[in-house]
Amino acid sequence: MYNIKTYNKISAIGLDEFDKTAYTCGDEVADPVGAIVRSAALHDVEFPDTLLAIARAGAGTNNIPVDRCAEEGIVVFNTPGANANAVKELVIAGLLICSRRVIPAIKWAETLKGNGDEVGKMVEKGKGAFVGPEIKGKSIGVIGLGAIGVLVANAANALGMKVYGYDPYLSVDAAWNLTHNAIHAIELNEIYEKCDYITLHVPLTPDTKGLINKDTIAKCKDGVRILNFARGDLVNSADLLNALDDGKVAAYVTDFPSDDVIGADGVIAIPHLGASTPESEDNCAMMAAAELIDYIENGNIVNSVNMPNISMPKSGDERICVIHKNVPSVINKITGIVSGANININNMLNKSKKDFAYTMLDLEEKDLAKVDAIANAIGDMDEVIRVRVIR
Fold first, then answer.
1. pTM beyond cutoff 0.90
2. Are residues 173 and 152 part of one domain?
């Protein structure tokens, strides 16, 4: 029986992916082999030696100590694309409400309560204060063309906008899915200089922190509207607020409220609702469960953020999976141990990601004790972080 620890309330539809005869799921289980988390902070959590993998039911993994997990041989998964449609829809809503000044207009309309038959006249007299442009025909820069960015670009194109896209790491799949009308921006300056709207869809890294700041804002068109549904720290709040005060930025829509931006004129702060739909939560939970099951039962890694993605159909009697440091001669040592035991390797696959690598070996050997001895010998190698046998 495998135990799966849940650190947040996880969609029941997702947990139903686990075979109840083989898995026990819950927030109180002991010695878990897998874990599913949404927003719970795990940086101070001490993980048990039994833990093989953590699946984040969402795209961002800032709440997980990804590097420490790699060093401990714990694979960290995310669920890219599972909540993409939900976020895309809210981005489009943000485009519309920041253009047409919908939020301040609604707040003003509420002040008219109690004026009886005069409300109609007051509306016609005061509505001019909330005039805003249509988005059709305007230019939008999509920074980051992952699962969400591509959907936003395609939706904006369908709404008649001129779309500029920037992503130096554009994947083949994303390129295939992106509208052919999108203009490929070679550098970010092209986005800043040409776009009426800028929407951010990149992960938060040391390189992207404060991506929107006084220097980049200075390159933008006057009256630019900026949308941030990725991570709060992508935008330097102080610089953004100054730009709102002097009119350089017309509006800022963020899904990450902070004390300094809440209530500021020109800011629409949404309480992190991007993925808060029942459909999104179900999709993320189901994908997270599928990733854990495939890794636990087959050793395959799909959508990992700290280990290489690697899958191999099982073709031998026994499978040995090894997480090790990405240094020279490790593969020779591993295969040497196997050949030294006079066992044939039916199939083998190795891939690396930065400082870490993962090797899968399918062996033609029915003697379980012999295979376990090989696994133990591999595990004794200084370069090896974790080794396990899948039967």
1. no
2. yes
